[in-house]
Amino acid sequence: MKPVIALVGRPNVGKSTLFNRLTKSRDAIVADFAGLTRDRHYGDGKLGAHEFIVIDTGGFEPTAETGIIKEMAKQTRQAVAEADAVIFVVDVRGGLSAQDHDIASYLRTSGKKVVLAANKAEGMQESPLLGEFYELGLGEPHPISSAHGQGIRSLVELALDGLLPQDEPEDELADGSEDRPIRLAVAGRPNVGKSTLINTWLGEERLVAFDMPGTTRDAISVPFERNGQRFQLIDTAGLRRKGKVFEAIEKFSVVKTLQAISDANVVVLLVDAQEGVSEQDAHIAGYILDAGRAVVIAINKWDAIDSYQREMLERSIESRLAFLKFAPVLHISALKRQGLGPLWQAIGDAWASATKKMPTPQLTRVLLEAVQFQQPKRAGAFRPKLRYAHQGGQNPPLVVIHGNALDHITDAYKRFLEGRFRAHFKLSGTPMRIELRSSK
Ligand code: GDP
Ligand code: GDP
């Protein structure tokens, strides 16, 4: 599981700037807890080979008693509770404030590991201004500049120190791993039907539980086999195991959802037919895409809506989940056990696509045929020249294209090529990546 770092501090100290620098993502994951002006943001961070989850929080005033400010404080407390480590951001230029003291004393009682970041410290590594932050009783302030990218690496190393898994066995699926179970996660908002679906699955006759070393009975990680294929259902956020069945618990944890997605090979994204595609569904979907996971969209409670609603729903999926248009959309009723066969089929296809082997000669042939069908646009004196392609990775499939002047290939042309590769190799339910490599 990826470690979680929360960024905490009063407004305007530079938390968002730091968040953007750590995640470099355009699409922060936002939890849409209704009625909030400023939410917690979640994103994926990466430092060298290490991955972690970052939570940005709004301004924090632990002593606030009413209104939005109090809500923001509550959000921050939740973020701290979910985190393995906290980066407490203060503003060197603004100096120490009473609020900083309040936050510090809250953090000291939280029992979490806290690293103190003195932001906006560009050009003042040795500044005497840093000294006053010792008063917070959180140890040494680490000068950083979020805006200029200074001191960030060592700051994050400190925060992650001791949290990273030691020598984790290489789990990337590759050749010769047919025996390994497909790691399956069911993601979706509370009440969408996750526990109903899982209980229905586990109650199916064709589904056989098997023993796997290291799986305890209580952990929500269930190994099972269906039609000869092994699966492992991984910890699904918001569920608890009670005897043989699963039940929904009130609390929905975004962090758990994100961790489950990064831990999975295939994600079943459940959408509630009665509720339609929510903002939060779209954010989860965006995260699945960023994580490069294979995904199947299952519209649950299909039994409960009429044909007009069905049509409206189809349209809203087309528009709101347009960026997942490679994902098959299934209509199911977990409660009435409808549509489950096709869902299994789609899960299997998605995984087969994600791990498809694409030999160089075939890839190159598809590439050259595509170019013959439609040439890339000339850019000034340059006409990009595409020569050959090879597979650079699986899960998701990565196609590396070699040639000259490839910097001039447009995104639209890349999408055109992706379409040709997808059609030829029948890739469904997996994102795919294309990398262009120009020779000098
Ligand atoms: P947040 O409210 O804590 O999320 O703060 P923001 O990230 O929105 O930043 C508040 C202001 O501080 C913005 O105007 C940023 O451009 C500025 N800022 C952030 N980081 C730095 C930094 O490292 N140096 C300087 N000089 N300004 C910064
Ligand atoms: P979870 O919070 O995602 O685990 O959702 P639950 O599995 O607890 O389901 C929430 C509610 O939706 C329960 O009342 C279920 O009976 C109902 N539900 C689940 N699946 C279906 C379905 O396919 N059709 C209908 N009509 N209701 C369903």
CATH superfamily of the largest domain: P-loop containing nucleotide triphosphate hydrolases
Give the C-alpha Rg: 24 Å
- The helix/strand order is EHEEEHEHEEHEHEEEEEHEHEHEHHEEHE
Number of DSSP helical runs: 11
Molecular shape? globular
Q: What keywords describe this structure?
A:
7-stranded mixed beta sheet, binds guanosine-5'-diphosphate, GMP Synthetase, Chain A, domain 3, 440 residues, 3 domains, Rossmann fold, 19 strands
Provide an overview of this structure.
By secondary structure, the chain is α/β, with parallel strands linked by helices. It has 3 domains: 4-160, P-loop containing nucleotide triphosphate hydrolases (Rossmann fold, 3-Layer(aba) Sandwich), CATH 3.40.50; 182-353, Rossmann fold, CATH 3.40.50; 360-438, GMP Synthetase, Chain A, domain 3 (2-Layer Sandwich). It is built from 11 helices and 19 strands. The strands form 4 sheets. The protein has a 7-stranded mixed β-sheet, with helices on both faces. Helix 6 runs parallel beside helix 7 (279-291) and helix 10 crosses helix 11 (411-425). The structure holds guanosine-5'-diphosphate (2 copies).
Care to give the gist of this entry?
The chain is 31% helix and 23% strand. The chain contains eleven helices and 19 strands.
Q: In terms of topology, how is this protein built?
A:
Layout: E1 4-8, H1 15-23, E2 29-30, E3 41-47, E4 50-56, H2 67-82, E5 85-91, H3 98-110, E6 113-119, E7 142-143, H4 152-160, E8 182-187, H5 194-203, E9 207-209, E10 222-226, E11 229-233, E12 239-242, E13 245-248, H6 254-263, E14 266-272, H7 279-291, E15 294-300, H8 307-320, E16 329-331, H9 340-354, H10 360-373, E17 385-393, E18 398-404, H11 411-425, E19 433-438
Parallel strand pairs: 1-4, 1-5, 5-6, 6-7, 8-11, 8-14, 14-15, 15-16, 18-19
Antiparallel strand pairs: 2-3, 3-4, 9-10, 10-11, 12-13, 17-18
Bound molecules: guanosine-5'-diphosphate (GDP) (2 copies).
